[in-house]
User: Fold these one by one.
Assistant:
Number 1:
Amino acid sequence: MIILSDEEMKRFGADLGTKLKGGEVIELIGDVGAGKTTFVKGLAQGLEIDDDVQSPSFTISRNYMARDDLTLNHYDFYRLADAGIMSMEIAESLQNPKNITVVEWGESVRDVLPDERIVVKIAYLPTEGREVEVEIPIATDH
Ligand code: ADP
Ligand code: MG
């Protein structure tokens, strides 16, 4: 699918955000500036999060209260030196079915990410547009 603008990326994220029930894991794959965090801003709208979503690239993680007692845990491991501690934090996030776990630059923690995760791949196009590919796992019991 082609997403032509920043606004469209947010709408796409918001659309998925409205469907989340808790317990989902979303891995975002794409270069710096591809639009991963922009997608999460939209996701947050769909989750009725009031806070402004900021990139967690310096803080590594940010957490937001969402609708229906859900929590969005947003990680960015681009600058991560030691994946060990964060793997433990992710593993903990995955245990609570009220958490939605979203990971940018997840390579270093991939061994703790479940196979049944949603994977969103975003690639640059020569214009402002982005090519977006989504892999959604077969529905489980949540
Ligand atoms: P990442 O988290 O992947 O590093 P960001 O979402 O922080 O990327 O930044 C993407 C930048 O590209 C933003 O400034 C956004 O406004 C801009 N942009 C332009 N076109 C698009 C598009 N089609 N989809 C997403 N972002 C876009
Ligand atoms: Mg980002």
Number 2:
Amino acid sequence: MPLNWISKVRVMNWDELYAACNSCRRCPLCETRTNVVVGTGNRSSKILFVGEGPGYNEDIQGLPFVGAAGQLLDKMLAAIDLTREDVYIANIVKCRPPGNRDPLPMEKEACIVYLRQQFKLIRPRIIVCLGRIAAQSIISADFRITKQRGIWYNKKGIDIIATYHPSALLRDETKQKKREAWEDFKQIRDKLKEVTNNEQ
Ligand code: URA
């Protein structure tokens, strides 16, 4: 990515960031998108959830996690006493990959610059990676979701954990993943309590 463009993004405020995302043509996903899905929620939240990229419904509405996976995410948040207004939700890529394929490396590389600026503006204490794609971009390139979910990592003072993507839970016939995700969400609830108490 051109360095002068990255340094421009790194000093953007929210309005500038939204404008830059909405007019972005840094990767081919701009050709097929209906809307750019920048993110939603509480911009001063202590906790940020990161998914993979918009699907059909998100592309139409311009908001993250509004389809079936989003409804499940809402239920999981509710189970730990959180609503969308308490958290911020974003994705690794802000434009829908056609047919919901995995985003390509160059698409992720182009887009993550915006997400990093969102991290900087929000300054969350906790980041939750929803699924492998988010975990591989944020935690480590070789991240194995089945082996490494539920483990806390720390980068630059931010506690980071990965759990299953809600879409994987919707496909989970044995309910094993659902049980594991519930364990992860309980850890997330406890960590959020801990960071909130430490700041009081
Ligand atoms: N899946 C994602 O990863 N993100 C969304 O916004 C919707 C579905």
